[in-house]
């Protein structure tokens, strides 16, 4: 004798299966988004590292110029508009 689920039981199983499929799809989408944003974060960190290196180089240039100017003109405050040293 063949056994057959009731319409309600079959619908319940179909509903559960559909929920699993939907949840699996959503989890896949989230994993994809996480990977995309991780890649973006890696790129931003590389840009940040470059800018910090540039900042360090700029600071060294400033220190060298300041040292040169102090040696040449002595200590004082420089007006960046007029170039006067006080």
Describe the structure.
With 86 residues, the protein is mainly alpha-helical. The chain has one domain. It is 78% helix and 0% strand. The chain is built from one helix and no strands. It is rod-shaped and about 110 Å long. It starts with 6 loop residues before the first helix and ends in a 13-residue tail after the last helix. The mean pLDDT is 96.
Mean pLDDT: 96
> How many E strands?
0
Main sheet, how many strands, which sense, barrel?
Answer: none
H/I helix tally: 1
Give helix and strand order, one letter per element, not per position.
H
Overall radius of gyration: 34 Å
pLDDT < 50 stretches: none
Please state the overall shape, judged from the principal axes of the Cα atoms: rod-shaped
Give the distance, in angstroms, between the N- and C-terminal Cα atoms: 108 Å
Determine the fraction of residues in helical runs and give it as a percent range: over 70%
Strand proportion: under 5%
Structural class: mainly alpha
Q: How many structural domains can be distinguished in the coordinates?
A: 1
Question: What is this structure's SSE topology?
Answer:
Blueprint: H1 7-73
Supply the key terms:
single chain; 86 residues; mainly alpha; 1 helix; rod-shaped
At a glance:
The chain has 86 residues and is mostly helical. It is rod-shaped. The protein has one domain.
């Amino acid at each position: 004798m063949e056994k057959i689920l009731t319409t309600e039981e079959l619908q319940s199983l179909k509903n559960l299966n559909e929920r699993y499929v939907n949840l699996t799809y959503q989890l896949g989408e989230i994993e994809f988004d996480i990977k995309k944003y991780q890649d973006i974060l890696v790129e931003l960190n590389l840009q940040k590292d470059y800018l910090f290196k540039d900042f360090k180089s700029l600071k060294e240039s400033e220190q060298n110029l300041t040292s040169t100017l102090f040696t040449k003109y002595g200590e004082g405050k420089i007006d960046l508009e007029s170039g006067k040293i006080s």
